[in-house]
Amino acid sequence: MRRIIIFIVILIAAAAAWWGAGRLTQPVVALIPIERGPAVRAVYATGNVEPLRWAKVTPLVQGRIEQIYALEHAGVMPGELLARLDEAEIRATVKELEARRDYLQHEVERTRALLAKGHGTEKAYELASSEYQQVLASIAAANARRDHYLLRAPIAGVVLRRDGEIGETVGPESVMYWIGQPTPLRIEAEVDEEDIADVANGQSALIKADAFPGKALSGTVAEITPKGDPVNKSYRVRVALPADTPLMIGMTTELNIVVEQRESTDLVPETAIKDGTLWVVEDGRAKPVAVTVGIRGNGKAEVSAVTGALPDRVIAAPPPEIEAGDRVRIGPTDGATGGAQ
Questions:
Q1: 227 lies in which domain range?
Q2: Contact, 276 vs 241, CB < 8 A?
Q3: Of 30, 166, 192, 336, which one has the fewest beta carbons inside 10 Å?
Q4: 154 shares its domain with 250
Q5: What are the CA-CA distances from residue 97 to residues 85, 92, 310 (Å)?
């Protein structure tokens, strides 16, 4: 009798061990509800805020800043003087050329008089005349270059920014002035060539700026350049901003250009979809539910049932090796992708 009891105890322990081992090998899954909301597919881009019409002003020659006439916020008209560089060198050149002009003018008169008296030669007169005409042309060119030392406004607008102070040396690589209108504004963004086919004028853009965290900003695609950048493999897209935008010129932004949107759809995390199938748990076993996947974006996907209705809850992230009928254990939903709090 004692042996029978021991045998039964061993048998029960073995069964318990087998059952426990089976439980440990069952994958643990989290269930999440299917949500209702808008399905959005967007194209990501980055860009900078700039005026609709503006221009940079750079010196045409290298020189030292001698005078500044226009400061930031000042309104200017086309051709208005903004700054002047030191003209000492070009003035010295013109003075030297004028001295040579006076000398050659005297030579022309002298050789003409000698030729008239029969003491000179035609060749000497022509040489003096040629040199005189050359120096006149040189003086005219030098005087024209003096205008290069003057910086003038290319368009009407406001001085948005000014760089450089009196005494500093600047050159053609130095931008001294940014001239433009403070409004209207736009964002000039770069869109990857793989996404540009989905972007069109009139699409809305959701904008994020570090200067306004959490603030909903928007714009509208207004222009797409016809030629892309083959080096960066991108296209330039200009997004118009509303008149009341808080964004300022020069700010960096991130954009999501909405290329497709549907309101009030069934949404699941993209991790819940495995080969076009959602998975549910019935009586402790995994069961597939075939679905049609629509818009994908922001880590979520629009789904609709191939037949019948969608389930209320699905597995948040089906294990890669899951098969129909596999036993699974339901774990906590807190922290699961897309799970309810």
A1: 181-262
A2: no
A3: 166
A4: no
A5: 21, 9, 91
| Structural domain ending residue among the three candidates 177, 202, 224 | 177
Domains in the chain: how many in total? 2
Q: What distance in Å separates the CA atoms of residue 159 and residue 78, rounded to the nearest whole number?
A: 12
- Share of residues in the chain with pLDDT > 90 (%): 46
Q: Which residues contact 315 (CB under 8 A, 6 or more apart)?
A: 29, 30, 31, 32, 272, 278, 279, 280, 281, 286, 328
Q: What is the CATH number of the domain that holds 247?
A: 2.40.30.170
What is the DSSP track for 199-212? --TT-EEEEE-TTS
How do residues 118-164 score in pLDDT, each as one tens digit?
777 888 888 888 898 998 898 888 888 888 889 999 999 999 999 99
**61: which 2 tokens?**
């020659």
C-beta neighbour count of 297 within 10 angstroms? 20
- Which tokens sit at 255? 């954009």
The first and second tokens of residue 68, run together, are 């500044």
Among 211, 233, 262, which residue terminates a domain?
Answer: 262
